[in-house]
Amino acid sequence: MGKIKSSIKRLFSNHHTSNGGAGPSEAPAAMEPSTRLQQHAQHRRLSNTQPALPQGTATPASTPARPSHVLGVNPSTRTRRGDTAAAHIRGDDVEASESSTADRSRVPSVSIQQASDHLSEAPAPTSPNYLHPRGHYSRSSSIRSGRSPERPFEITEDENLPRILPAQTPCKLRITFDGRGDRNDRHDIVLESSEAWTEPASYKGLNKQISERLKAHKQSILQQPENVGIEVYRRHGSCLVVGIRNEGPYFIIEDFDAEVLEQRAVQNICGFVHQRPFEPFRLEICLHFSSIRKTPQESYGKYSQMVVDEIESKMSDNNFLDQGFLPRVHRDQMTTAHIIEKIIGEDPPQRFVQNPTLLRSEIVQRGASILFIACVCSHLKVDHILHLILEHKYNDTRLPQTGEARCKTLQSCDIYVKRLLKCVKAFFARIIQCDGKRHGLEDTDVMPILNIPDEAQGTGETKLGQGSYGSVTAVAIDPSHHDLTGDPDRTFALKKFSDQGELGRSFEREFSMLERLFRKQHPHMVSHITSWTQKGHHYILYPRAARNLRTHMHEHASPGRNGVNTAWLLRQFNGLSSGLRTIHEMTEETPSYTSATTAQKPRNHFVYGYHHDLKPENVLIFEHIRGKNPVFKLSDYGAGKFHIRPKNEIDKPSQQSSDLRGTMSYYGPELRGAKTRPFDIWALACVYLETIIWFTLPHGELNQFVSERLQQSSRSPGWEDDFYWTGTGIHNAELRPAVRSYVDLVRKELDKDPESPNLLGSVLDLIMECFQIKPENRPKIEVLCERLDELQEKAELMAKRVEHEVPTPSSGQSVHSNDAVSTHENFLVRSPSHRNHTFPEDPRSQRGR
């Protein structure tokens, strides 16, 4: 009971002070909502485990609260594998305020509120039994007085709290073991359960399952006599919170002890709930084990040969530039002080006559352990290796370089260095960080990026796109070389440009846009991860999308026009307009001056730009869980540009562009003249209209809409185009009949549902305003955002009123399934649950791709 009372006092010290109760002279600092959630989780855990004490029994001293404030992992600062700490998780100790005996006897009734609410006293508190070990009870005071006893404290919960902090959560435990033969031979064990995430017993059970599987795997290896001397080690481990819409915080597992798992999991879950209340989530624990030989058998002959063979077996192949490399997690296993000492003892040096233990200590102290093993793999003798480390003072951070002065001590030294340089970079593959920077790499530098074979095409890489700029391929990154995600199977998209001529300029244009947009990190715009130039090519690394909007509308039927899905669609429309607003709107910046000779006063300026290639192909769809909650994001900024203007010139007319590099179908009537930001408004309206046609009408109508827009081009005789307008320019242009016809068709379809507000009809009104022939008559992006904000808010309220909470909208049903929509009538008579069909959860090889 002492722990319960201490935790409650810490949790509600602000409430106590603000309501006039006796307390410390200074009000304690307000606690973060995630901290309160953690402490409530601790209350729940203590209430179910703390035995009730007899009346009059003194309670034990309360223990201090563990650090509890939780935020997600910061990729730029997270602890690398092998470091002392398992993860960077910010914490603030919450100190309990000391008070007198009289103070402690007056504890007010309290109510645990929603995660985002301030603490306030419940008007009529009741006490749920599961929050208290014995329900209502009173304890006689040790100080006798004539006063009547104080009313015992009570703990109550809001009705929403069980939905925010569920008593149990799904848990997925995945354990992977590498085989000893084929490097692609893996054995996966997937265990799914529902765990009481605040209970220590749950994590003890998980620890037991991991330990039993690991023990069984070790026994299966050692059953074969030739495997004696092999050790099993953790290749990768992560514990992450997976929401149905968002990926939550994660930590790297260095130790899967039950207490460590419990502490980290509870912290991350509370952090996730604080940021995204009401979003369903699960706990996912991924462990990947590998094995390596550290004790040679007689057949090996030399210990150093065994080390070389093991390292070669762990080299990653299928690198995107055909550069083999040794992943850090394997490298760390083979560069220990013990292995270095064994190799020195096996081949004692002649010039450096010292005890192997002392030489080993000298190598480790100089930070040259990795270089030593790299030299062994280059078949250098120990004498030559020690010459490079002790006399040339090379180490893991100062490697030999080509073109250095010839060695005067050892004539053959240059030969050994050339031999070493052929393989040394394989031991020093780079770490990839989400820094948004552009790096210049040497030809011999190794990026730990792996191609993903396309089994269907029988090729060594999976193509995601091909254009005049170059290509986009799907790639993976070795988990020990990045901190980008807690999912070890996440894949990425790598865009490749040549540095020659117009292709090089295409890269420069796109990167100049990305560099500014990276600072924004808008949720509906694709931000790159990093970029580099190497071997005559430019590379940009992106997150990998599930598909683009064009492919999505072609391959999937509409999910159905119910309240939840309408709210989802308006959320995506509003997100796209908000993303475009980050490009269009002028933002104030202060340039930095690096001149050391002239002191210049920074002059503020404004930055604004345009996209100029908006189309369904450039709206990428990301799905955290396959088939659920697709998110639209703007991408491909190669045709865009930012302009910079001094603050005192803000009232001058906007700069205009006459260059066009995009797709002509969505060009506005002003395509022959100067094009500014309204050019994007027209194109965005085209994307909105096609999406509403897909969402509202039966599948196949969108293709019909494109066909009906086709007509003889007024600009190029003999050719057809599918513009949204007809004419030769803004002076005689008008909307094509097919556009007006389909707008009317959608309106008639929406009118068939009189019970729901016609929110999409209001979107159609907004689209028609964007289709004004004269650019100056189109609404600006801020107006577009404000109108969509209002419509989205109405849709969200409607969805919550009908569904009580917003469930998971689907991506729409695959048109290739047996249950695909075939007729208009079939589509309309479906029940909401049937029309809101979602795909089964994706296999791990597909998630996040």
UniProtKB/TrEMBL annotation:
Ranges where the record places region Disordered:
1-154, 803-849
Give the Basic and acidic residues compositional bias ranges: 838-849
SUPFAM superfamilies on file: Protein kinase-like (PK-like) (SSF56112)
A Gene Ontology molecular function term of the record: protein serine/threonine kinase activity
This protein is called Protein kinase domain-containing protein
Q: Which InterPro entries match?
A: Kinase-like_dom_sf, Prot_kinase_dom, Protein_kinase_ATP_BS
Residues noted as binding ATP in the record, renumbered to the chain: 495
Residues of the Protein kinase domain: 458-791
* Residue stretches of biased makeup (Polar residues): 47-62, 107-117, 808-825
Q: Name one Pfam family in it.
A: Pkinase
Q: Which CDD domains match?
A: PKc (cd00180)
Alphabetical list of PROSITE patterns matching this protein: PROTEIN_KINASE_ATP, PROTEIN_KINASE_DOM
Give the keywords, sorted.
Answer: ATP-binding, Nucleotide-binding
